[in-house]
């Protein structure tokens, strides 16, 4: 990965320079096949749903401020809890990962679009109906068996709500598969001629791993849900013990997807962090290949650990031991990433702006979630804390502390590219501070709660747990408030922010070589791979001190034309 | 790269180690441990907590340090050093976590084995296999739970390999939407609360009547799902007198949160007395004891005595049967 | 810009250019077959999931299929032979097109394939209507209907693909030895359906 300015093959004659078209705002509401439009569509839609899922969480937390079920009925609580989990996972964090993938992959690899643009648009347009099915179910008879929907409970607690849930997940799952297919083919086959796999940005590596998991895992969930549908509607009993079926089979099929799914949720943001940190620390990523391969290792291991969600279920002892061992090994590739990121920061020139703050916040909170993850992987300890608030604490730390903080980091980092304008740094920092305090206050007390004996998915609990629950509730309110500066910042900056220019961060990955926002065809001129994605610290030695990346770029393209 | 002098590194390392060791023992996060096995679980948790504290301090400390030490100066537009990696360092931070998780896994295996989780295998030569051979009434063998001899492997916790299996108290546990029922086959007692004598091994055979439930004893650190159509078990020995909560830990419907009961660990005398008074009560007309009427149709009556504890209104309990679908 | 060899047909997998593109980009090769193959990997995971469930039930339940739900072998056996041979018939049509630009040959052999597929489906419907048990009779019956039914759905879809290819092939020049994505995709899909059937037949009827 050295500085290389290559003249493209002579057959490619310079094209007449066309004035880049700009998007009309109406394009964002149509079946548009431009990957950048689709990326924004994914991002905005997923945030819309996050407000709904988040509002549900706030109602739940309000209910849990007191031991009695006085704010909402227990039954309604369960519906909120089910929809909150489902919306947050399938309508916020997974589509948000797909948003970045859509927006960034073609730009990063110098392609003009995805491999199958129309399929891409189809994948996006399955999200709103899928989400609406869930929301509509609130009016009819919402599902109330948890996001895991274990039978037999899911078979007896409201037929139509459950069926709507199944249809929604099948729709969203299909969308996910079509998206994954596109990412895989695009990354694998559409890199610009000079870019080998080791000069790809790490985000592409992590999306490669994600796409593989999506393609292998999601169809199995579809199979499970098809069978569940038959049990629900056609009177079969695949999972119904009353007719000779076995609920444990469902659990195996469900978790065969849903464990890998947690890596589907977090791997894209591992990729985002690998992009954000080097840029704002002005240092190459530490251990490129180790971080690239650890994504694949996580994906592979992620496929063989699913029964760690079933340690107290119908899993015989020796299987529990097997799954404990495989689960714990995941700490090794994940640790490689964490340490690699820390080493990237070490000795750098850290610019503590909003993306960087969220990036560091990501490492610090994901670490907590990961460490509790290894704890619950230990069978004897998991037997104690399974299905308690300890688990709720664990997964919010990895999901919010990992996924969502990474998501915010990426949103701020690429905001100038997507909108062409800078966001407001002060509001961004307020957003970070409130979020970081809020989530830690919400989710840290959940760990002692769980260990002390508070089970999850309850609307009523023992009064002795009230104090810690109030802390959680206060934290949840702070998190809700934190959304305000974020939304204000985004909306205001899109219209009024100061123009960003091509490359405000002086970053080296390809997406920064084009205009902000990028032209419809992505690059006005043939993009040039003139440096590795993380070659920070070279230009200062080899070239004039005051020559910025922008100028270098201009010089490079002048040489070519 | 700017590595602090050896002395400072050493001091930091020693401090982190000491703090972790101390915190790992003094976190105060776990409730009372009422059995030998619970103490072992606490042992593994403390061990993991020590490691986690160490890693937490190391990494969070490094992050905070870097935020201050490696801040970019205002106006400095240059890059940091061009360091792309360091293979020996990367090998170190791959190997150390690998060793750590290996240790955690071995330790967990040991504890789990002590708790009786691998009972049939561990007991293969001592001949205490009966526990594993109770066939569930439907005749289903357990899912992928067949060993090469075709005999079943326990689902749940069996006897600890070290404990001579004599005089185990058997109790049949049945979870139904929103209550636990306990049946003592030796004495014919049927109750809604679990009474056991101290220092005697207890073996619970757990079943479910409608949907999934999970039988959890927080002070004993043990939990096992109750699965309709299949039998699971828990074995434990209480070593501390007192009353302990029994909690249902698997979502089982709207009043999942109210599905609680109490475990009484009593001295042998107290226990015998309880057995006696209850065997008498059971021979009298059934209406005395709420728990002797487990027919699903009488859920509301059954739950009435628990309404106080559950903190729900009487009417909401009455709504239960509307909720309780025919299974 | 060199004109692409891509067939601008109406499939969703179709690579399309924005109308307003005056692109100066290198043309990437046709990736649609690669896409179809990746898609089939995902599809096969659905079947794998269903087969795994079936095998677990089989291992768990001593008598599987239980009495009264045993299956007849003759008709499904004939059906299987028809379906497997149709794969070869289809391949013949495809190679005629590829090697000799023989659209007529393609039509004949694909037509034959479609006919065989239809016979297979007909046979399955006949079997369904003559079985002594229904979807909810017992676990085995449910497995049987869901597995074969889900596969039947795939056969139907494959059949529609073949018919679409036949329909399009009426236009001269639509398919040629250089332009045959639709033909190849339909064939790959059909082979996939065929392989799934072989496994399914082995599991449900023979095991
Ligand atoms: C983004 C989502 C995400 C991620 C990344 C993870 C990551 C991990 N999870 Fe988590 N998990 C969930 C989401 C996630 N999880 C959810 C949603 C549930 C609950 C589902 C439900 O029931 O509703 C769950 C539940 C869950 C369970 C089941 C608990 C139960 O229900 O009883 C288990 C058990 O093993 C587990 C383990 C792990 C492990 C070992 C990791 C590992 O990947 C973590 C690895 C990371 C680290 C370890 C930190 C960094 C590493 C180092 C610094 C190196 C050194 C470290 C050591 C040597 C320890 N998780
Ligand atoms: C990415 C995933 C994700 C995220 C981000 C969150 C975010 C939050 N979660 Fe959630 N949670 C899950 C995934 C997630 N959760 C899952 C999978 C479950 C398991 C479900 C199950 O058991 O089946 C769960 C369960 C769960 C529980 C346990 C329920 C139970 O077991 O009984 C609780 C309890 O406190 C909780 C709380 C919260 C809170 C307070 C937040 C907060 O951080 C939320 C912060 C709020 C916002 C981000 C939005 C705020 C905005 C507004 C209030 C404005 C509203 C405006 C309009 C409507 C226009 N969650
Ligand atoms: Cu029974 Cu929860
Ligand atoms: Cu998992």
Automatic annotation (TrEMBL), chain A:
Pathway named in the protein's UniProt entry: Energy metabolism; oxidative phosphorylation
One GO term (biological process): oxidative phosphorylation
Molecular function in Gene Ontology: cytochrome-c oxidase activity; heme binding; metal ion binding
Stretches for region Disordered: 1-20
TM region(s), chain numbering: 37-57, 87-109, 121-140, 164-190, 202-234, 254-278, 290-309, 321-344, 356-377, 397-415, 427-447, 467-492
Biased composition (Polar residues): 1-13
Role, per record: Cytochrome c oxidase is the component of the respiratory chain that catalyzes the reduction of oxygen to water. Subunits 1-3 form the functional core of the enzyme complex. CO I is the catalytic subunit of the enzyme. Electrons originating in cytochrome c are transferred via the copper A center of subunit 2 and heme A of subunit 1 to the bimetallic center formed by heme A3 and copper B.
Protein name: Cytochrome c oxidase subunit 1
Species per Swiss-Prot/TrEMBL record: Lusitaniella coriacea LEGE 07157
UniProtKB/TrEMBL annotation, chain B:
UniProt cross-references to PROSITE patterns, sorted A to Z: COX2, COX2_CUA, COX2_TM
GO function term, MF aspect, one: cytochrome-c oxidase activity
Alphabetized UniProt keyword annotations: Copper, Electron transport, Membrane, Metal-binding, Respiratory chain, Translocase, Transmembrane, Transmembrane helix, Transport
Domain Cytochrome oxidase subunit II transmembrane region profile: 21-119
Catalytic activity: 4 Fe(II)-[cytochrome c] + O2 + 8 H(+)(in) = 4 Fe(III)-[cytochrome c] + 2 H2O + 4 H(+)(out)
Record domain Cytochrome oxidase subunit II copper A binding: where: 166-277
Free-text comment on the cofactor: Binds a copper A center.
DNA repair keyword on record: no
Subcellular location as annotated: Cell membrane; Membrane
SUPFAM superfamilies in UniProt: Cupredoxins, Cytochrome c oxidase subunit II-like, transmembrane region
GO annotation terms (biological process): ATP synthesis coupled electron transport
Keyword Methyltransferase: no
Primary location recorded for the protein, binned into one broad class: membrane
Cofactor requirement: Cu cation
Cellular component, GO, one term: plasma membrane
EC number: 7.1.1.9
Domain of life: Bacteria
Pfam families associated with the record: COX2, COX2_TM
Regions crossing the membrane: 7-24, 44-68, 89-109
Biological function: Subunits I and II form the functional core of the enzyme complex. Electrons originating in cytochrome c are transferred via heme a and Cu(A) to the binuclear center formed by heme a3 and Cu(B).
The family this protein is said to belong to: Belongs to the cytochrome c oxidase subunit 2 family.
Protein name per Swiss-Prot or TrEMBL: Cytochrome c oxidase subunit 2
TrEMBL record, chain C:
Species name: Lusitaniella coriacea LEGE 07157
GO biological processes: aerobic electron transport chain
Record's subcellular location: Cell membrane
Protein name, per record: Oxidase aa(3) subunit 3
Sorted UniProt keywords: Cell membrane, Membrane, Transmembrane, Transmembrane helix
Transmembrane segments annotated in the record for this chain: 34-61, 73-91, 103-124, 144-167, 188-206
Residue intervals of the Heme-copper oxidase subunit III family profile domain: 34-207
Stored InterPro entries: Cyt_c/ubiquinol_Oxase_su3, Cyt_c_oxidase-like_su3, Cyt_c_oxidase_su3-like_sf, Cyt_c_oxidase_su3_a-hlx
Keyword Cell cycle attributed: no
PROSITE patterns referenced in this protein's UniProt entry, alphabetically: COX3
Membrane topology: Multi-pass membrane protein
């Amino acid at each position: 990965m050295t500085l290389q300015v290559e003249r493209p093959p002579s057959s490619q004659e310079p094209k007449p320079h066309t004035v880049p078209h700009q998007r009309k705002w109406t394009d964002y509401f149509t079946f548009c096949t431009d990957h950048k439009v689709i990326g924004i569509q994914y991002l905005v839609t997923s945030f819309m749903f996050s407000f709904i899922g988040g509002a549900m969480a706030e109602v739940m937390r309000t209910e849990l401020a007191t031991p009695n079920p006085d704010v909402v009925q227990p039954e309604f609580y369960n519906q909120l809890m089910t929809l909150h989990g489902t919306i947050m996972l399938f309508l916020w964090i997974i589509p948000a990962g797909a948003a970045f993938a859509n927006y960034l992959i073609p730009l990063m690899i110098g392609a003009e679009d995805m491999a199958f643009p129309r399929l891409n648009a189809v994948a996006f347009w399955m999200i709103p109906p899928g989400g609406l099915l869930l929301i509509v179910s609130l009016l009819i008879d919402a599902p109330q068996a948890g996001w895991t929907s274990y039978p037999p409970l899911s078979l007896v607690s409201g037929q139509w709500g459950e069926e709507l849930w199944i249809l929604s997940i099948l729709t969203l799952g299909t969308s996910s598969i079509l998206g994954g297919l596109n990412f895989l083919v695009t990354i694998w086959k559409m890199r610009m001629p000079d870019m080998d796999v080791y000069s790809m940005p790490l985000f592409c590596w992590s999306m490669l791993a994600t796409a593989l998991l999506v393609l292998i895992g999601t169809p199995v969930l579809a199979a499970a849900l098809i069978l569940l549908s038959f049990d629900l509607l056609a009177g079969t009993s695949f999972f119904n013990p009353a007719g000779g079926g076995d609920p444990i089979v469902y659990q195996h099929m469900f978790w065969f997807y849903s464990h890998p799914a947690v890596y589907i949720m977090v791997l894209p943001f591992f990729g985002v962090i690998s992009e954000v940190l080097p840029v704002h620390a002005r240092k190459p990523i530490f251990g490129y290949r180790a971080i690239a391969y650890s994504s694949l290792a996580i994906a592979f291991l992620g496929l063989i650990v699913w029964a760690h969600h079933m340690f107290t279920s119908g899993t015989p002892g020796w299987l529990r031991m097997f799954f404990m061992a495989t689960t714990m090994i995941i700490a090794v590739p994940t640790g490689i990433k964490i340490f690699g990121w820390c080493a990237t920061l070490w000795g750098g020139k850290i610019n503590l702006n909003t993306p960087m703050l969220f990036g560091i916040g990501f490492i610090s909170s994901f670490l907590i979630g990961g460490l509790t993850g290894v704890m619950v992987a230990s069978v004897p300890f998991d037997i104690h804390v399974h299905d308690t608030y300890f688990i709720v604490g664990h997964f919010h730390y990895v999901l919010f502390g990992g996924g969502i903080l990474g998501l915010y980091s990426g949103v701020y980092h690429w905001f100038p590219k997507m909108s062409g304008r800078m966001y407001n740094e002060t509001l961004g920092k307020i957003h970070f501070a409130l979020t970081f305090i809020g989530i830690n206050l919400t989710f840290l007390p959940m760990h002692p709660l769980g260990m002390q004996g508070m089970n999850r998915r309850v609307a009523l609990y023992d009064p002795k747990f009230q104090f810690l629950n109030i802390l959680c509730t206060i934290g949840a309110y702070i998190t809700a408030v934190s959304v305000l500066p974020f939304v204000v910042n985004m909306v205001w900056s899109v219209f009024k922010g100061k123009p960003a220019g091509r490359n405000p961060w002086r970053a080296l990955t390809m997406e920064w070589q084009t205009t902000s926002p990028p032209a419809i065809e992505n690059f006005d001129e043939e993009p040039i791979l003139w440096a590795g994605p993380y070659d920070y610290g070279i230009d200062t030695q080899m070239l004039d001190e005051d020559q910025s990346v922008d100028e270098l770029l201009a010089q490079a393209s002048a040489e070519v034309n | 790269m700017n590595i602090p002098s050896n002395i400072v590194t050493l001091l930091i390392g020693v401090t982190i180690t000491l703090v972790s060791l101390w915190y790992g023992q003094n976190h105060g996060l776990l409730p009372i441990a009422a059995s030998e096995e619970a103490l072992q679980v606490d042992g593994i948790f403390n061990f993991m907590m020590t490691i986690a504290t160490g890693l937490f301090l190391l990494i969070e400390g490094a992050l905070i340090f870097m935020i201050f030490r490696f801040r970019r100066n205002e106006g400095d537009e240059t890059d940091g050093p061009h360091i792309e990696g360091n293979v020996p360092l990367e090998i170190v931070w791959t190997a150390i976590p690998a060793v750590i998780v290996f240790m955690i896994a071995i330790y967990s295996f040991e504890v789990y084995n002590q708790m009786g989780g691998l009972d049939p295998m561990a007991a293969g030569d001592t001949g205490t296999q009966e526990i594993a051979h109770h066939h569930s009434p439907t005749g289903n063998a357990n899912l992928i739970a067949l060993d090469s001899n075709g005999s079943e492997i326990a689902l749940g916790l069996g006897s600890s390999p070290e404990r001579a299996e004599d005089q185990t108290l058997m109790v049949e546990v049945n979870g139904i939407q929103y209550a636990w029922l306990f049946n003592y086959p030796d004495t014919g007692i049927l109750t809604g609360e679990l009474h056991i004598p101290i220092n005697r091994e207890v073996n619970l055979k757990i079943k479910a009547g409608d949907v999934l439930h999970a039988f959890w004893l927080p002070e004993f650190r043990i939990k096992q799902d109750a699965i309709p159509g299949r039998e699971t078990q828990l074995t434990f020995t209480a070593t501390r007198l007192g009353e302990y909560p029994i909690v249902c830990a698997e979502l089982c419907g709207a009043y999942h949160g109210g599905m609680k009961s109490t475990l009484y660990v009593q001295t042998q005398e107290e226990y015998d007395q309880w057995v006696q008074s209850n065997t008498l009560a059971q021979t009298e007309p059934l209406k005395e004891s709420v728990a002797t009427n487990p027919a699903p149709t009488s859920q509301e009556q059954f739950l009435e005595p628990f309404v106080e504890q559950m903190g729900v209104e009487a009417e909401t309990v009455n709504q239960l049967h509307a909720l309780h679908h025919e299974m | 810009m060199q004109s692409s060899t891509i067939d601008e047909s109406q499939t969703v997998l179709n690579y399309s250019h924005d109308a307003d593109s005056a692109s100066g980009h290198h043309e990437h090769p046709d990736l649609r077959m690669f896409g179809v193959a990746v898609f089939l990997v995902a599809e096969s995971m659905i079947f794998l999931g269903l087969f795994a469930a079936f095998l677990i039930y089989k291992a768990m339940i001593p008598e599987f299929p239980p009495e009264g739900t045993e299956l007849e072998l003759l008709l499904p056996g004939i059906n299987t032979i028809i379906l497997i041979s149709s794969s070869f018939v289809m391949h013949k049509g495809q190679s005629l097109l590829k090697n000799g630009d023989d659209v007529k040959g393609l039509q004949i052999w694909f037509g034959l394939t479609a006919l065989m597929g239809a016979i297979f489906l007909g046979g399955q419907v006949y079997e369904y209507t003559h079985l002594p048990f229904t979807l909810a009779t017992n676990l085995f019956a449910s497995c049987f209907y869901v597995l074969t039914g889900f596969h039947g759905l795939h056969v139907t879809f494959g059949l529609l693909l073949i018919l679409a290819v036949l329909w399009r092939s009426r236009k001269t020049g639509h398919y040629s030895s250089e332009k045959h994505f639709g033909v190849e995709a339909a064939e790959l899909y059909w082979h996939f359906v065929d392989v799934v059937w072989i496994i399914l037949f082995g599991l449900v009827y023979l095991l």
